[in-house]
Amino acid sequence: MNEDYLWDKSGEPDPQIQELEEILAPLRYQPKPLELPQRKNYWPVAIAATVLIALLAGGIWLRLRTQKPAQPEQAKVVPAVPTAPTVTPVSKQPEVAPNTNSSKRPVPRKRNNTPVLTKQEREEALAAKEQLMLALRLASEKLKLAQRRTQGASPNQIKNQHRVG
C-alpha cells in the first residue's frame, strides 16, 4: 500500500481502500451554490398596523374630548318641615282583627330619603360623631405605639431624653 494515495491520490491504490471509497461515495461532500432565503417584505403589514393604531387612538381621543366631564355630585340636604300628623276620627277607622298568624311579617313602611332630625338630635349626632372620631384617633395612635414597641427600638433613636432647662 502506498501512503501517498491516502493523501494526494498519487501512486497505486489498495483494493480495500477503493472498496471503502465506493461504499462511502454517496456521503461524499458535494458542493452546492449558496441559497439565501427570500426576504419577505413586511412593510405593508407594518404600515397597516400603524394606521390602525393611529385611528384607534384618534377615536378614543375624540370620544374623550367630546364627552361632558362628570361633575362632582353634592349631597343636597333639605331641611324637612315637620308636619302635623293627620288623625282620623275613631268612627271611620276600620276594625283590625288580631293577628293570629305569627308567620306573617308586618309590611315595611316606605321611608323618605331625607331623615327628619330636630336641632337637638342633630347636635347630639354631631357630638357623637366627634366622640367617635376622637376614639378612632386614640386607637390609631395606640396601635402605632404598640407596633413601634414590637418592632424594637431603632438604632438612631436616643433613649431617655430629658428636657433641659
List key phrases describing it.
165 residues, 0% strand, 4 helices, mainly alpha
List the helices and strands and how they pair.
Layout: H1 3-8, H2 15-24, H3 43-66, H4 119-151
Structure description:
By secondary structure, the chain is mainly α. It is 44% helix and 0% strand. The chain is built from four helices and no strands. The protein has helices at residues 3-8, 15-24, 43-66, 119-151. The radius of gyration is 49 Å and the shape is elongated. The relative contact order is 0.03.
Counted beta strands: 0
The backbone outline, from C-alpha atoms, is elongated
DSSP summary: helix tally: 4
Query: How much strand content do the residues show?
Result: under 5%
Biggest sheet overview: none
Structure classification = mainly alpha
Order of helices and strands: HHHH
What's the short version?
By secondary structure, the protein is mainly alpha-helical.
